[in-house]
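We treat protein structure as text, and this decision shapes the records that our systems exchange. The remainder of this section carries one protein's record, kept here as part of the documentation:
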Amino acid sequence: MAKIKHNNFLDTVDEVITNATKAGVLHLHAEGSGLNGRKITVNGIESFHFGTTGYLGLEQDQRLKNAAIEAIQKYGTQFPLSKTYISHPLYAELEEKIESIYDNPILITKNSTLGHIAVIPTAVRDDDAVILDHQVHWSVQNAAQLLKIRGIPVSLIRHNSLDMLEDRIKKISGKVKKIWYMADGVYSMYGDYAPVEDLIALCNKYPQLHLYFDDVHGMSWKGHNGGGYIMEVLKELPENILLFGTLSKTFGASGAVLVCPDKTLFRKIKNFGGPLTFSAQLEPSAVAAASASADIHLSTEIYTLQNALQLRISYFNELLSQTNLPLISNNDSPVFYIGTGLPATGYNFVKRMLDEGFFVNLGLFPAVPVKNTGVRITISCHNELEDIKALVDALEYHYEKALKATNNTLERVGKAFNIPVNQNITKRELDSDLSVICADSIEEIDPELWKKLLGNHNMLNVEGLQFLEKCFSNNDRKEHNWTFHYFIITDRKGYPILATFLTSGLWKNDMLAPDSVSKAIEKDRQADPYAMTTKVLSMGCLFTEGTHLYVDNKHSKSNDALKELLYRIEELGEKLGAGMSVLRDFKKSTPLAELFQKEGYIPIAMPDSCVIKDLNWNSEEEFIETLSSRSRKHFRKEVQPFEEKFNISIIDSPASEKIEKYHELYKNVKAKNFGLNTFTYPEKVFQNMASHLAWEFIELKLKPEDQIVGVLFCYKNPHGIYIPILIGMDYDYSREFQVYRQLLYQTIKRAKNLNYKKIDLGFSASFEKRKFGAKIIEKQAFIQASDNFQLEQLDMMRNEFS
């Protein structure tokens, strides 16, 4: 079968960022003829600046400015030569000062991103392994990807999960020499810390463990001589730790710094560390500014600045504690995160703050999970206490307004972040113009109403759903048990606006991943059948595809009904303990995309759907004429000559023995096809097909042996839709006798004989189905996950195995 087209993680990110840009909260431009750190002008509005990462305000220090200007006058705008050959005259002095800050050998890099690319591939040897905290900065993760080319194992663990880290260490300790754990010192979104002391305890327990910290957000405002958060905790740096600080951000200049206590490793990195060897060095102005900042760090003034910042941080924390604003992480870092949950609320909140004259940052996917959207606020020495008080007043006022404007609640935000909130808050109420019908079985739904709304799609008629409910209940294995949930939303007059059904069940996380990723994960599943699986609440079910959602888009309350549905899905997912909610299968250009994304769902590409609607022909030759010239040649060469080699039968009620054979053929295909990687269905499903009037089986027996070599499991929707849902084949004969292609053709002939109007050929093998005249429809789904870990883990594996 042809390989399914898979989603690229970058495409998803692009859509999310594009929507945020359209909302006017990202990709903004500062205006004006100058900057002072305290205020910034955006969209013509002068705003108090609460988005900087220059926490001590040193980027506006006149001493740094003067040093940079003087260096340009003396040495020019740059020194265009690799530092391996020669450094410009100011470098040695800066290196000496930075070494004094850390009391260890250091290397200065152009920036932290290039620094990680220089250091990680050099420090990590071929017989080592790397474990990444899944919230470690992108620049570290990106550099670690380079190791996979050399076959070095790189894996993710959940954020600050020491249990998961120790479990991973135990699993790989006998296979590698060193194990590198890479994390941030201070995390840039929530402002929380790495559990440094606990990690040192793990190092003592497992001497293989080495630590790699990116502490660029902990630099300067913390630690002796401003050495950063890691140095504040450790005081001295052991040889099994590599530490990155920055000369940008709080330090006030440009560049980054590696601290490497291991002198042998230090020499190797310096002699051949990628960008250190082949890239340009820092400009004289940047080195001079950094040197001036280093003088401040090496003086007692750094503690005055640190104390001034801590005063502002404490004041902000005190003010926030008197509000209902959901602060996600309570600590003494200068980074604060106010959760909004829904992206729509985040967009609205940030825009309100900008219009009010306060510049704050939006935190959104992929930096945070999509349902953990929020506002990132940073405090700096530029902020006066009255600015901070005005900020809190504005936050408190506009937060409530943003919640109301987007039909959100503080209770809902608390659930999204799993944090306590004020219990005396207003509960969300159902729109008085809407009424919601909820049911756990199709038996509870008016059959005529369902037929009118969704029953004429795929196998979504009442009989089809009764069949599915019967098949996927009371089974031995948990992956074969699904719960069914039906929603119909009407207006106050009882007129239906929206209808859908969802199922909850166990999914493989790699269901839509490339074949190579699924094959690698299936090896792990030999020992643990449920490795990398998640309980998912999904529109439709894994047995159906196509239109799972009816919406009367002309109704004035259609958007409100959709938002109500998404809220009900959120509540249901929480009740069921689902790790992910999925809305499927929508056309690529669906107008609902923007609403879904604002309500906390991100788009992912799905395999193409294949449909045949042209059945207006009366003979084989007329059918051939409906095909393209290339497809006609294909048909006459690969399909037509083989038909006579089979005895072709339409079986209505096969005996149990035959169903057992069919099931074996189905499992053959399932074992080879990882394009849509689901759990294998039990024989019970196929036995139920045999006793159901809507099911039939297209059987191919090879002449003269009369041996069954292929079977299609087909559902007949009485509304004129023929649906070949599953396939079984004997691979000993499939290629030589073109079994798959013959089954496709027999499907088309059967649908025509039944006078059906449409064939739903389903996902996958779109290249083959196109040859038979199928229309290819690009599809996408929208997902909401409890965190980004699964997505990032799969994306890392996709890069490794693709």
In short: Residues 1-7 have pLDDT under 50 and may be disordered.
